[in-house]
Amino acid sequence: MSHELRTPLNGILGLSQSLLEQFIGPLNEKQIHMVTLIESSGQHLLSLINDILDLSKIEAGAMKLDFAPIDVKFSCETSLLFIKELAYKKKIQVFQKLDADVEQVLANERAVKQMLVNLLTNAVKFTPEGGQVGLEVIGDKENNLVFFTVWDSGIGIAQQDLPLLFQPFVQIDGSLTRGQEGTGLGLALVAQLAEMHGGRVSVKSAIGKGSRFTITLPWPEAMRTYAPVEIETTHEEGMIAQRPPIANEDANTPLILLVEDHETNSTMLTMYLESRGYRITIARNGLEALEMAHAEVPSVILMDLQMPVMGGLQAIRELRANQDPRIANIPIIALTALAMPVDRDRSIAAGANEYMSKPANLKRLVEMIEKLREDFRLR
Predict the structure, then answer these.
(1) Cβ(298)–Cβ(281) below 8 Å
(2) Which of 12, 91, 116, 286 has its C-alpha lying 20 to 30 A from 337's C-alpha?
(3) Which DSSP helix (H) or strand (E) runs through 81?
(4) Is the pLDDT at 303 greater than 90, yes or no?
(5) If you average pLDDT over residues 184-212, what whole number do you get?
(6) What pTM was computed for the model?
(7) Rounded Cα gap, residues 77 and 348, in angstroms
């Protein structure tokens, strides 16, 4: 399902991003607006697909969370960044209040951010213009608990509807909420992820008086004695990457081997990467990729995983086992619609240097290519 849903969406988002950058030709103001709407709708669809897949993984017992001490302040501030623009557009004031004693919790950082972002997004969505939204963190040393509370001054929820909130695919009836988009999965995901942490989520709300959603997580006493964890910040997808230098001569232009059997995706990626100064050669399956790697010795290989004849993982293993060091050491980026955490692990274990799930952020992809070229000192 992940592959089938993400593959066509990759083409939609990639071509939209390419059109907005106008490297094929200039767009007028109305065309830019229309393509922006296409790209925005595609991103919204991607978020819905991700919610459905995440909930399916949890219910199937296929989602495994790795726990480590995480920096609470960093996680909260990063989550608030996701709603900053939307809150600004609605003139909503955003508040943050953190307990100084709660420096760390033992949790999965990605899951904590996902829970907070879901709650914060809902808070902004259901708060009228000019309202208020806040995030509070409070530690309870006596009971070894920490509370993450997202509150708002929004429309509120009727008491009889509160038991329905955390059921998947359920949205609360009423004229105020029927106009809101969504699958009704966000709160169900929050509840499931909280339970996977040994915690829970609760809500207090009343019509016209706003809502308070609280995630309660275990806070072992030992966590209060840990030294602060240094969090290494990385470029998030969506940040602007530097454009690589475009060479004047083909001989000096880096060659990318694109291994992709989906016609729309290969066309989109070829157009975009060529506009960024790369030469592109295309293989339609893993076997072709092996032949072309020997013939062309590309600077970088972009490898899809699910293909006919020979899959991407097998092709990566074959390349890494090659006796010719020029072939065996070619940097490889696994670029695939498979989005499970295990897929990244399998790709890296097979020999890929990097992994990016589709739909890929094209600017981030170029940044990744350039970093590999620099690391491997490629031409």
Answers:
(1) yes
(2) 116
(3) helix 72-89
(4) yes
(5) 86
(6) 0.52
(7) 30
